[in-house]
Amino acid sequence: MDESSFNRRDFLKLAGVGGGAVFASSLPGCANFMPGKPDNDFYFVQLSDIHWGYNNAAVNPDFKGSLPKAIAAVNSLEQKPDFVVFTGDLTQSTDDPKLRRARLKEFRDMAAAINVPVRYFAGEHDAALDRGEAYQEFFGETLRYTFDHKGLHFIVLDNISDPAPILGDKQIEWLRADLAKQKPDQPIIVLTHRPLFSMYPQWDWATRDGDKAIDLLMPFKNVTVFYGHIHHEHHQKTGHIEHHAAKSLMFPLAPVGTVEKKTQVLWNAAKPYDSLGWRSIRAETGGEAHVLMEQALAKT
């Protein structure tokens, strides 16, 4: 049996959706990843770059409908994910502190309709202008945190509240202290907004000291990073660590090398929503394999 197709078919059935591109992790053990063991594995959903408050109809004429469509899609999944994580840029940035808070509140109230637990963290649009002050009023006092779920250790890193953009020495030491508590075989998932590696600094697609975090993570044999910010699907490895960027729910950005300047891609009426989407991630508690399914945003 072709195990990659078996994984795909079973995961599509699990998620209760009828299509989407599937990316199978190439981490050691992926070939042995078999579905159908609910006590030993789980899946979660990644939503990213919602930019609530954005209103350019030339890029997305349905700018008020993208988030509700995504929420409806998650709520209609045949088997519920264990949780949903929003990987930053929940709102569109604004210099008006009152409007910034209004957008954060609107987003929070809409996301409350999701019928499974939700994890949040900020993007630079939410937090860079005021070091996360307004964001923390609505989503808690911390911009970085950890949690554990079914044998996996999740680390949320803040590479957005400092406009530099950097993690900063204090956060690097915080990460070092957290990792010192973990065993070398502890599977780890890192959630962050910007890429930790230097993808394309000219477009702000980098974290200046992200290599320090990667170096600290390198001794752990099962590490995967999920992030947003670049508004399209992307997969890259630094050593054995895999990095996976998700699509935006509001507008796509042109990939590096396709245009001279970073730019939003104009709406394609012939293929609406095809460049917008969300991701389901099926994780094995051993941490050795993840199956990613990229799902386009529904048209209705």
- The radius of gyration is 18 Å
Q: Tell me which oligomeric state these chains represent.
A: single chain
What do we call the CATH topology?
Answer: Purple Acid Phosphatase, chain A, domain 2
Question: How many strands appear in the DSSP assignment?
Answer: 12
Strand content: 15-25%
What is the topology, as strand order, of the major beta sheet?
1-12-11-2-3-4
Would you give an account of this structure?
- The protein has helices spanning 3-15, 66-75, 97-111, 124-127, 133-139, 169-179, 210-217, and strands spanning 21-24, 41-47, 84-87, 118-121, 145-149, 152-156, 188-191, 223-227, 234-238, 241-245, 277-284, 290-296.
- It has 300 residues and is α/β, with parallel strands linked by helices.
- It has one domain: Metallo-dependent phosphatases (Purple Acid Phosphatase, chain A, domain 2).
- The strands form two sheets. It has a six-stranded mixed sheet, with helices on one face. The chain has a six-stranded mixed sheet with strand order 5-6-7-8-10-9, with no helix packed on it.
- α3 (97-111) links the parallel β3 and β4.
- α3 runs parallel beside α5 and α6 packs parallel to α7.
Index terms:
single chain; 300 residues; alpha/beta; Purple Acid Phosphatase, chain A, domain 2; 6-stranded mixed β-sheet; 7 helices; 12 strands; disordered N terminus
Give a brief rundown of this model.
With 300 residues, this protein is of the alpha/beta class.
